[in-house]
Design a protein that fits this description.
Strand content: 25-35%
CATH class of the largest domain: Alpha Beta
CATH topology of the largest domain: FAD/NAD(P)-binding domain
Radius of gyration: 21 Å
Order of helices and strands: EHEEEHEEEEEHEHEHEEEEEEEH
Number of strands: 18
Helix content: 10-25%
Distance between the termini: 19 Å
CATH architecture of the largest domain: 3-Layer(bba) Sandwich
CATH superfamily of the largest domain: FAD/NAD(P)-binding domain
Length: 304
């Protein structure tokens, strides 16, 4: 029996764990990946809006955080494969056979990038699919690429790729780009960039490497193929609440609904970080939510 079990070791979960440790709670953190950090591991841009700390990448930020983790006293299990969670009973079953119990649960499972679900999307990972323009653009210099999406992330990546690629084609299913105004203006004035709106990519084509994409445009009678050597997909994210979505209240997109203390509709079950904050998914917000949830739990257990 633990006082608290935290699901997820991103900024929110680690912040909660540090606060739980400071407040004297018996704490276990479960992380499904072999490495902690969550979304930080996918941040390749500088982090310069976290108060009091700057980092060149998410991994560098994690390094600063890890210095504090080394001095903390809580259990952290990586590679933890959770097969079931009973939120009301606060029970967790792992594929390894362990059955875990706690007084409180803190859900910090984060989000994942939304996928298109088209042929070639999985097959060409590492063979023409671009993870990040900031990280990969030197590898795709002098190559033609396609960026799928129309929000800030898609357009920002397209602009970065246009600095080194001869042509960058943005394919967006909506009538107009959803990116902020200054990004959209840069798109319009960059001769290397072309935008296809009301269009979708239906297939990524190639043998061993990406060679083309198949595009369907609203006004076209049939799909056409466009030769590219790289594809970057940015069509938003979705919360990792699948494991317990049927047990608690969520919004129409699957984000957990919480009160001002970050508690869900199930007593002593908290949801922090990106899974409950679709409007402002920031490191600062995640860290603050972790602190709040930990202090609430400690107060209820008369520990803080």
């Amino acid at each position: 029996m633990h006082d608290v079990i935290i699901l997820g070791a991103g900024p929110a979960g680690l912040s909660a764990a540090l606060w739980c440790d400071q407040l004297g709670l018996d704490t276990l953190v479960l992380e499904k990946n072999v490495e902690i950090g969550g979304q930080l591991l996918s941040v390749y841009n500088p982090i310069d809006n976290y108060p009091g700390l700057r980092a060149a990448t998410g991994r560098e930020f994690l390094g600063h955080l890890s210095e504090r983790l080394d001095k903390a006293d809580f259990d952290l299990w990586t590679g933890a494969d959770i097969i079931s969670v009973n939120l009301k009973a606060k029970q967790i079953s792992l594929s390894s056979g362990e059955e875990l119990q706690s007084i409180a649960l803190i859900l910090a499972t984060g989000v994942r990038r939304r996928q298109l679900g088209i042929p070639g999307e999985k097959e060409f990972v590492g063979h023409g699919l671009i993870e990040s323009a900031m990280r990969d653009r030197d590898s795709f210099a002098e190559k033609d690429v396609c960026v799928i999406g129309g929000g800030d992330a898609a357009v920002e990546n397209a602009l970065l790729l246009a600095e080194v690629c001869p042509t960058v084609t943005v394919v967006h299913r909506g009538k107009s780009l959803q990116a902020r105004r200054d990004f959209a203006e840069q798109i319009r004035t960059n001769h290397r960039l072309t935008v296809f709106t009301e269009s979708t990519v239906t297939r990524i084509i190639g043998k061993e490497e990406v060679e083309a994409v198949e595009i369907v445009r609203k006004e076209a009678l049939k799909p056409f193929q466009m030769a590219v050597q790289g594809v970057l997909i940015r069509i938003g994210v979705e919360p990792n609440t699948d494991l317990f979505r049927q047990q608690l209240k969520v919004d129409e997109h699957g984000y957990a609904l919480v009160n001002s203390e970050h508690e869900t509709d199930i007593p002593n079950v908290f949801a922090i970080g990106d899974i409950s904050n679709p409007r402002a998914p920031t490191i600062s917000g995640a860290v603050g939510a972790g602190a709040t949830a930990a202090k609430v739990v400690a107060a209820r257990l008369n520990r803080g």
